[in-house]
User: Which sequence fits this backbone?
């Protein structure tokens, strides 16, 4: 059976993606790092709505944790593989660069870029043989396109993810695997709850923050058969807040 793996799938945008993919009939594996309560609630909600979901807790930036978790999953699912990977786990540790400490830099870069690398390299091994095909969707950010002050770490990570998306798309296109990035603007989640919404919303032509479900709808399209000819793209979803 084909599964979808959504990193950071327990809250915010990832949770909406898990719900949407399960409504499309796909069993989802919800990865998260530490918040067990939110993860269990998301998993239960999907099941209550008639979908299939399971939890897989690991830190995407830790190669050993990634490998251990996926080895166990594969042992328990000998006939299954992941045909959809959504690299969604991400973090912000905002600071101006001259005050930024090593952990603020390393944690943000590593969660986005090492997370992408460890998961994608591993799951591609199951998508590529016999042109089974697959969908890889990387959640980047407006910050990775425009650059935002106070976010050198986050902008660098998200811009790096766009470069990787474009390179990998060309490597695996002939195997039926598409690789695309989504660059959201301001979306209402825990990640943006400390921002000054009143001021920021004035910058958004549509006049509001986006909803996680609006990002999930775009993921659903990119996962669908109709999107088979779209690869190496970066799709903005930002209410008109362009560079
Ligand atoms: N919200 C926005 O406005 C916005 C805009 C542009 C891009 N994005 C991007 O969209 C993605 C989702 O953002 P969000 O707003 O939904 O974030 P969020 O509400 O803060 O949720 C983050 C999720 O990622 C998980 N996570 C964080 N670090 C992880 C790690 N090292 N390993 C495994 N899981 C990890 C968290 O797990 P725990 O629950 O265990 O902590 C949680 O499930 C991120 O990549 C973010 O950069 C968001």
Assistant:
């Amino acid at each position: 059976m084909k599964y979808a793996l959504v990193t950071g799938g327990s809250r915010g945008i990832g949770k909406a993606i898990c719900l949407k993919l399960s409504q499309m009939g796909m069993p989802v594996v919800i990865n998260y790092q530490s918040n067990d309560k939110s993860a269990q609630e998301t998993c239960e909600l999907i099941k209550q709505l008639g979908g299939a979901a399971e939890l897989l807790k690991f830190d995407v930036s830790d190669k050993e944790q990634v490998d251990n978790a996926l080895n166990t999953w594969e042992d328990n699912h000998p006939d299954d593989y992941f045909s959809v990977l959504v690299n969604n786990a991400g973090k912000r540790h905002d600071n101006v660069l001259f005050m930024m400490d090593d952990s603020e830099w390393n944690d943000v870069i590593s969660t986005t870029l090492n997370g992408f690398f460890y998961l994608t390299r591993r799951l591609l091994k199951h998508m590529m043989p016999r042109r089974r095909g697959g969908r890889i969707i990387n959640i980047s950010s407006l910050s990775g396109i425009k650059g935002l002050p106070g976010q050198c770490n986050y902008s660098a990570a998200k811009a790096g993810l766009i470069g990787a998306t474009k390179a990998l798309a060309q490597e695996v296109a002939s195997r039926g695997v598409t690789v695309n990035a989504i660059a959201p603007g301001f979306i209402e989640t825990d990640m943006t709850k400390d921002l000054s919404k009143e001021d920021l919303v004035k910058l958004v032509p549509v006049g509001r923050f986006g909803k996680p479900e609006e990002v999930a709808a775009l993921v659903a399209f990119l996962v669908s058969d109709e999107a088979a000819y779209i690869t190496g793209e970066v799709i903005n979803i930002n209410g008109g807040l362009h560079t």
